[in-house]
């Protein structure tokens, strides 16, 4: 392979996604050596470098003089996977900030589990003048002190377009500091608020910390602190992410803080009273229009009516991802909701089940409302659907009571020839017949070999299931051409029967139709389990 520029976007995504989830900088170096030197910069620029596995105690090959990669890195991330020494963590972050991004970082995500020191923040706003995306794990005491200091550069916030509010906020001082920072970001386009405004046990407005009184809930306080004088500056955001927020606020507070008609992407993750915000948005969109193109949200039964009204209040949606709770009544689901978005919708993901329809009273069926997708929707090329627990036997094709209902939904999706990409969200159950299990006293090397053997056998079983799906596609479309078939991607964890501990780490498995010969079958691209040598040689 001479240049990464010749790779299709899907494969480049597989490479970078593998690196992200494996968090192995040595792998990144090994992959880059396979490419032409002119392509190295693109690979590193596409990568959000996670520093979690670095330590300041010893040398690291990634930051050696012979590696051209660090100076091209523009995105740094530090998300501790376990307990870290705060002093060592700060040293690693400082080293990376000094050695990476020759012309300045564009994205910086620092941990909120480690209270970063005062000196590090000074280094950030002194040396990084081109930051566009920021997540800082800074206590309000440090952040507030610097924002009020005469030495703080007033131009530093001017380049920031994306801000993530961390989830460690635990006092009114923290809220005031981040609210003050929010008020300075006049060019802010993306805002993420992940601070929990209610407890995990009770979905109400009870504050997570006693020091934050009931009248100072996180979202409300942050938005209200955006006030300047007697006037509220409505933020013209393009992307808004709210995670575990209580949304029971008066319309006046929300609409005077955010100009919702300018939103392009809205992401509501496990929020309380989602229907309240949806009702406000529906009214606002009818009055002022909407630019919303992408919606991702989790819902429960009480939100279905508000969701229906909301989706009908505007048009032009391009991407929709909905996650429903298990208690939702299946009769509330109807993809005819999407009628106003039929000309523009490109991606659809509905991860939900119909608990009112079961087999033998136990197995929930996937939604039976995919029939509207069999016609129309000219731009809908990517569809993701939840799937039942499919059993992969040692020999033969998968068989399960719920498969026939699942196939009905699958057939409706693939009937339209525009479908180019189909995702399956769920779990696959691998029967233990034909698998090998190491003895307790065998070495880790032997256990790894057994694990790899089991993964190969699992892959063979999944390949047979994929062939079965491709055969259904050929029957529906009346052609055996792989070139005309959509790509199939399975997302989920693979489990074994009988309580086996051989739980597979596979998360993503892709099947891309071969462009060489239909006899070859689909090209299989694996996620975390693919070897670097194989990946670089594709």
Description of the molecule:
- With 538 residues, the chain is of the alpha/beta class.
- 31% of the residues lie in helices and 18% in strands.
- The protein has 14 helices and 23 strands.
- The strands form 4 sheets. It has a 16-stranded mixed β-sheet, covered by helices on one side. A 3-stranded parallel β-sheet has the order 17-19-21, with helices on one face. A two-stranded antiparallel ribbon has the order 7-8.
- Helix 9 links the parallel strand 9 (239-243) and strand 10.
- Mean pLDDT is 70; it is low at 198-216, 228-232, 354-365, 498-507 and 515-538.
- It comes from Teratosphaeria destructans.
The SS-based structural class is: alpha/beta
Shape: globular
Overall strand count: 23
Number of helices: 14
Strand order within the widest beta sheet: 1-2-3-4-5-6-9-10-11-12-13-16-18-20-22-23
Query: Measured on Cα atoms, how large is the radius of gyration?
Result: 25 Å
* Overall residue-averaged pLDDT value: 70
Tell me the fraction of residues in β-strands, as a range: 15-25%
Separation of the first and last Cα atoms: 8 Å
Task: List low-confidence stretches.
Answer: 198-216, 228-232, 354-365, 498-507, 515-538
What's the multimeric state? single chain
Q: What percentage of residues falls in helices of 4 or more residues? A: 25-40%
* Most strands sheet: 16 strands, mixed
């Amino acid at each position: 392979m001479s240049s990464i520029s010749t790779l299709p976007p899907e494969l480049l995504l597989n490479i970078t996604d593998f690196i992200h989830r494996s968090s192995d900088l040595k792998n990144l170096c090994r992959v880059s050596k396979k490419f032409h030197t002119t392509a190295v910069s693109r690979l590193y620029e596409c990568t959000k470098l996670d520093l979690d596995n670095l330590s300041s105690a010893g040398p690291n090959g990634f930051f050696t003089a012979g590696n051209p990669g660090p100076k091209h890195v523009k995105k740094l991330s530090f998300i501790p996977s376990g307990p870290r020494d705060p002093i060592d963590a700060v040293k690693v972050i400082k080293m990376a900030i000094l050695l990476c991004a020759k012309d300045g970082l564009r994205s910086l995500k620092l941990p909120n589990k480690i209270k970063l020191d005062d000196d590090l923040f000074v280094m950030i706003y002194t040396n990084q003048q081109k930051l566009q995306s920021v997540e800082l794990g800074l206590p309000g005491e440090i952040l507030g002190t610097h924002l009020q200091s005469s030495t703080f550069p007033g131009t530093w916030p001017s380049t920031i377009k994306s801000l993530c509010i961390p989830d460690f906020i635990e006092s009114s001082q923290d809220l005031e500091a981040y609210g003050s920072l929010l008020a300075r970001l006049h060019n802010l386009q993306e805002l993420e608020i992940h601070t929990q405004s209610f407890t995990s046990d009770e979905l109400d407005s009870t504050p997570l910390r006693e020091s934050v009184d009931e009248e100072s809930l996180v979202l409300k306080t942050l938005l209200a602190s955006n006030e300047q004088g007697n006037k509220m500056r409505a933020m013209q955001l393009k992307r808004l992410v709210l995670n575990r927020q209580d949304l029971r606020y008066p319309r006046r507070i929300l609409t005077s803080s955010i100009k919702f008609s300018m939103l392009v992407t809205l992401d509501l993750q496990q929020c309380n009273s989602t229907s309240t915000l949806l009702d406000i948005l529906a009214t606002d969109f009818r009055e002022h229009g909407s630019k919303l193109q992408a919606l991702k949200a989790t819902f429960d039964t009480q939100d279905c009516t508000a969701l229906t009204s909301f989706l009908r209040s505007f048009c032009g949606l391009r991407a929709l991802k909905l996650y429903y709770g298990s208690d939702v009544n299946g009769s509330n689901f109807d993809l005819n909701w999407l009628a106003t978005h039929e000309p523009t919708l490109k991606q659809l993901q509905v991860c939900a089940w119909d608990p009112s329809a079961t087999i033998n009273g136990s197995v929930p069926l996937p939604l039976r409302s995919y029939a509207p997708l069999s016609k129309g929707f000219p731009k809908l090329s990517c569809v993701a659907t939840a799937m039942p627990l499919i059993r992969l036997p040692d020999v033969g094709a998968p068989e399960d009571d719920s498969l026939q209902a699942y196939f009905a939904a699958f057939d409706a999706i693939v009937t339209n020839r525009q479908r180019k990409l189909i995702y399956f969200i769920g779990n696959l159950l691998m029967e233990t017949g034909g698998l090998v299990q190491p003895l307790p006293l065998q070495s880790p090397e032997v256990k790894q070999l057994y694990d790899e053997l089991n993964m190969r056998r699992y892959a063979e079983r999944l390949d047979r299931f994929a062939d079965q799906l491709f055969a259904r596609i050929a029957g529906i479309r009346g052609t055996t051409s792989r070139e005309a078939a959509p790509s199939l991607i399975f997302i989920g964890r693979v489990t074994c029967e009988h309580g086996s501990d051989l739980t597979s780490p596979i998360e993503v498995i892709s099947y891309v139709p071969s462009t060489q010969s239909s006899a070859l079958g689909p090209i299989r691209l694996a996620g975390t389990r693919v070897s670097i040598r194989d990946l670089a040689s594709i």
